[in-house]
What we know:
Layout: H1 10-18, H2 23-35, H3 37-54, H4 73-103, H5 107-137
Helix pairs in contact: 1-2, 1-3, 2-3, 4-5
Amino acid sequence: MTEPRHDFDDALISGYLDGELTQEEAQLVRIHLEDCVTCRKTADEMSRIREATMGSQFHVPQDTQWDEAPRGSTSRLLRSAGLVIGLAWLVGVIGYLIVELVGSEDLLGMLLVGGFVVSAGLILASALLDRRDAMKTDRYRRVKK
């Protein structure tokens, strides 16, 4: 018996093992597995993996393990300090760019960088305002999962 061309979709084999194929597709896979040693080995391996995973038990963590909020006052303080330092850095960079633009004689460069700074500032302000408004109406804001 000659080995058929191997261009068979492994997803069909998986669907066959899970019993999710139509009768026509299942028959196609069954016939192919009779003729193709490679796909038969693949199906056997998938079947062993399926049996092993179906027999596995999954431990569901307790609700307290899902808590992602900073747990201690030190953690909250460090996170807040990081945000303040990050915003101060951003303001400093924007200020530096503005000072450099004012002292520059390159009008096109000034317009390009100035337009970028203004647009970035407007986008950042828009995002912060949207976030502030969303926090007011978010009924899940106190959920810590």
